[in-house]
Amino acid sequence: MKTLLKLSLAATAVITAFGAQAQEFPSKDKTVTLVVPYAAGGPTDRVARDLAEALRKPLGGVSVVVDNAAGAGSTIGTAKAARATPDGYTLLLNNIAMSTMPTMYRKLAFNVVNDFEYLGIINDVPMTLIAKPSMAANNYKELSTWINQNKGKINLGNAGLGSASHLCGLMFQSALQIDMTPVPYKGTAPAITDLIGGQIDLLCDQTTNTTSQIEGKKVKAYAVTTTKRLTTPALKDLPTLAESGLKDFNVTIWHGVYAPKGTPADVLKKLNEAIKAALKDPEFIKKQEGLGAVVATDKRIEPAEHKKFVQSEIDKWGAVIKAAGSYAD
Q1: Which residues form the signal peptide (predicted)?
Q2: What is the pLDDT of residue 47?
Q3: How far apart are alpha carbons 311 and 113 in whole angstroms?
Q4: CA distance 284 to 253
Q5: CA 180 to chain centre
Q6: Does the model's pTM come out above 0.90?
Q7: What CATH number belongs to 30-125+253-324?
Q8: Which stretches of the chain score pLDDT less than 50?
Q9: Alpha-carbon torsion, ordered 228, 148, 163, 194, to 10 deg
Q10: Are strands 294-295 and 116-125 parallel, antiparallel or unpaired?
Q11: pLDDT of res. 106
Q12: How many angstroms separate the CA atoms of 225 and 170, rounded?
């Protein structure tokens, strides 16, 4: 009887301690780590650093640091976050790769749907279709004609397997029902350098990477990939691919925040509230607009809707990737 009583008291103490720990989240004695599965300096890293700064205040002044764990198409950093202690102090910020990895990679050390707690979508980054400066076509209609006249001879650059430009390129070819020769690079910078030099013909990439090139007239721009035209001065006159004839064409690179599976519900609630507060921070909004990104304000900032959205994106991109046979080991 005494043994049972001791066990009962011990269990109660553990539960009470755990509950107190969760209620105390976040502790000023700890640091929140935001894992970014990409190299420092890239567009996703920049979004993460802006978010980390905006999260400090709603998290009571707790320090939020970015941990760049790049490699293998973001699978290394994503796996690291999945294995982290589920206490709210390790989070993951990843982009559209969360919806493409399940199909693109035959073996993953994690399950995108089941191994994470979803905390909300952060932003959407539009994309632009651009071409080498020597391209004769001056608008999308002329470019469409050029593409049809040069089937089998078109080089379409991308920043590597699974990158935003790779995915947009797959969707573009699927919409046109025309195959182009993919030219993968180790990042966007060398791809744009070769585009400017005329070594490749076309590239579809994020506004964060292309706007300055378009402003400087170093490349030719033909369309944006969103359903509505953009208001950015350098891009406001570009039509959408949808209005140019590719019905329902819509590709944006979104970013979301995740916690390891098993993170306590009350901690998740506090994190989601902090994220929603950060998304309303004027300085964060200003910085995101400077990157050409649109801060999320719709229902996807809620965990359940975030997860529902990612599941729909897995279906969408899965079909495109399977049709293209674009797999990684």
Answers
A1: 1-22
A2: 94
A3: 8
A4: 18
A5: 25
A6: no
A7: 3.40.190.150
A8: 1-22
A9: -110
A10: antiparallel
A11: 86
A12: 13
